[in-house]
Structures are given as C-alpha cells and as structure tokens.
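Notes on consecutive records. When two proteins share a document, each keeps its own sequence and its own token line. Never mix them. Below: protein one.
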Amino acid sequence: MSDCAFAIALLAALAPLGAAAAGPTLPAEQPVVMIVTTSAVEAFAEAIEGVRRGLGSGVKVVVVDLAARPAERGQLSGKDVAVLLTIGNQAMDEAAQLGSAPMVATMVLRADLAAPGRRAPSSAVVLDVALADVLAGLSRVFPGKTRVGMIRNPDQRGAPAAALEAQAKAAGMTLKAVECPRPEKLLNAFLSLRDLVDFVWCPPDATLYNGTTVKPLILASLENRLPVAGFSASFVRAGAAAGVYPDYLEVGAQAGELARKYLGGANPAVIENPRKVRVASNPRVARLLGLRMPSRGEPGIVVIE
C-alpha cells in the first residue's frame, strides 16, 4: 500500500474515534416563559391552557402561582426568564415590580394598563369586548329586543355616552347609559332603567359587580322582570339571563403567540382585543322572567343553568 493510500485509510479509521471523543451534541437550551398567576378560578385556568397552546413547542414553561406559593415571587426576577406572561391584575402588578423581562399581560381590562406608577406591559391581550360584538351577541339571546340599558362606572375610562349610543344605533338598537360611581348606588341605577329598556348590560367592572352586589342585583332583576346581561360565565351562573364574554382559551392563545414573537426577536408592543367571544344564555332564569331564549343545541350559544 502506498504512503498516500495508507494515510487515507488511517484517517477513515480514526474519524469515528474523533467523533466519539468530542461527545454527543447537546441541544440548545430552551427559552423560559414564566406564567404568573394569582388565582385558581376557571377562567384563569382556561387562559393558561391557551397560553401553552399559543407558545407551542420548544419553550420551557414555568407557572408561578403567587396565591398558592407566594414564596416563589422571587423567581420573577430570574435572569433566565425570557418573557413574563401575567394572568390578571395582581400578577401584572407583581411582575411589573419584580421582573425585568418583557411582559405580556392578559386577563385584564384596557383601563387597568394605565394605572399610574406601574411599569406598563410590553404587550397585552385585554378582555374588553367591543360594544358592537356585545350587542350582536345579545340580539341572538333577546330576539326582537332593541332597547338596551347599560350601567357603567364614570371612573372607568371609556367611550363617551354619545359614541356608545351611536354604535348601538348602527346595530339597530337604542342605548340608555346610566352612570354609577359606587357599588352602593348599583340598585338605584338599575331600577332607574325599569320600563325604559328591555334588558340591562353590565360591562366588566370589579368595583361595581362583585360577590356583595351581584346577588341583590339578580333579585331585583327577577322581582322587576328586567333581564340582566353579564360579562362572564360565572355572572350568568349567578342568575343573569345572558352573557357575552371573551373566549378565555383563545385569549390565552393570543397572549402565548405574542410571547412567541418576543422569543423570535420581534417587539410587537401591541394591545389586542379578544378575537373570539362567547354568548351564553340561562334558560332557567329566562323562564322566571317570562322570556323565551335559545335552548341547548343552538349553534354558537353556551347554555348555563
């Protein structure tokens, strides 16, 4: 064998040994997305499931529940955290104070993002549903009913009453908005709409609508045969005749997709509204009010009793 042929054969024989000596190729470390939450409520759980779907594969997801494990709040400032994804107001506050990674917030209202002294999230998927979408949903639940009442807090930043009335008119309805600055005034505001509207829309507002005020409101609704439309499944379950609210699974997926963009090097810096809403009816309450509403099997309507 010539010297040249011998050298080639020797190199071929040694090649596998060299590969073995170098060791196996290690996979690249996965980026960490930390989901920060403070509640085990059904809506938050749905949103977290959606976040996982929106993030897809190749991402390390760490869930920190500050309500169940408050001692873990120190993890929010971890240097390995690529994105902080917050579920709800309290989680957003904690992450804003302790974290430095880009923050994507969801399960909050647009007005919540403007709180003074808080680090604003890089991006957000808010729970605000456009009035046009609300009215379109309620027209399916209350067919033929076109007079809408609305109770809102003047402290919540929103469109002027005239603009809301114009939107309702474009949807073929009339809207009468009543301002209620304090929860103790809620019943008076509701009763002021009696005989003037066909149903009352209660937009999201944790100050006005909470565990203390909702039960008396539902009782007044039944006593006065004036239907209430709420902003969540739990509101409908509590006795509202209907509800229009975001699809929380889809909201979470939207937030996960935004986080994925940050991981890819983009900086979307956007505030998105829900791209999908749910319309719910409570036929049991409807019967008590003397109404006929969609029952089980109606496409696109969630029945809650």
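Protein two starts on the next line and is unrelated to protein one.
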Amino acid sequence: MAAMTLLRVVLADDNLLIRQGVAALLQSLDSVELVAECDDVDALLNAVDERQPDVVITDIRMPPTHTDEGIQAALSIRESHPSTGVVVLSQFSEPSFVLALFEHGSEGLAYLLKERVSPEELERAVQAVAGGGSVVDPKIVEVLVEGRTRRSSAVDQLTPREREVLALIAEGLNNASVAEALVLSPKAVAKHINSIFSKLGLSEEETAHRRVKAVLMWLAQ
C-alpha cells in the first residue's frame, strides 16, 4: 500500500554527474520513486509519454541547442500531460527563464536553484507540483522584486483607466475579455496596454514578457 502512494518521477539532465547526484537524492526520499533518467529533451518527452509520471524534474539547458530546452519541455508537458507537475532545477537565476516558465500560469510548476536546493526542499517541491501547486526559490523572488522595485514608481504614472486594464490583466483576462469587462473596444484596450507598457519602460521587450512583467509590477504595488 505504501508503494502505491509514491510519487513517480522522471529526471532529465545532460550532465551525468549532476543527474546521478540528483537521482541519488531522489532515491533517498521515502515519498518518491524515480522511474526514468534522461539526458536530452527527446528522451524526456518519450519517457513522459511512456511512464506517465506524477512529476518531471528537468534542467534548463540540454541538447541539442543548450538554450532553454527544459523550459520548452516543461510547457509542452504541462499542456500535453496536465496532471504531471514539473520542477525546473536550474543553475540560472535569470528572470527571463522564470518569466518564460510562468508565462501561461504557475499551476504545477516549480523553479529551484541547484546550488541551494536541499533534499527537504526538493521533496516539498515535488509534492507541491504533483498537487497542482507552485514553488519558486526565494532567491529568484528577490531578483524579481528588485527588478520591480526599480520601476515601481512608474505604476503611479498610470491613469485610473490604465490601472483598471492592468488589474484585469493580472486576473488572467485577455484583451477581448478586458474590453468586454470595461465596455471598451478591443482597439481602445490595445491602446491602453501599449501606453501601460510605455510608462512601465517595457516597450522594447517581447509582448508575452511585457504582460508578465507589467502584472508583477502591479502586484508589487
């Protein structure tokens, strides 16, 4: 009966030593069963299809391009296997990776730093994402907060209508839903959003990242 309660985990990391170290850590946990180890994204996605794990733990940079394969794999897995949680275990505290991971929501996702994670923290993260929760390393939160703080005064420059638009975006509404909620035309909403981006200093960034960063700055206020 106890074995049936174990969380099935697939691990992916192209660095053999790191993968073996994390595997050993996972095997020391009473609540986890390591069912597959992978060294690239294709092997990871195949293992998820075949083993149907509760949780995937993945590095960010893996073959073939060593850029953001882990992030893209996480998003793909959450879409194709919504009951599978994903823990991104990374050595990078760059906000762009975190924003990309949480671009479409945080449910069932975690972002932890390899250099800081303990067995207890990893176990808590695995359990959290398996249940649909979310975990972010406190150091990552500090980085994001510092970035928001530098621009927080810019939120004060928004008009009351722009604040209404941004508040609805923070609730997850798209442009069409914002327009319906505020009885505005989609064109008017797009104009307000562009003005928000400009005032918050986000006009030169990718649209998806601008929306996420704008919401983070709003929530920080």
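For the record: The mean pLDDT is 86.
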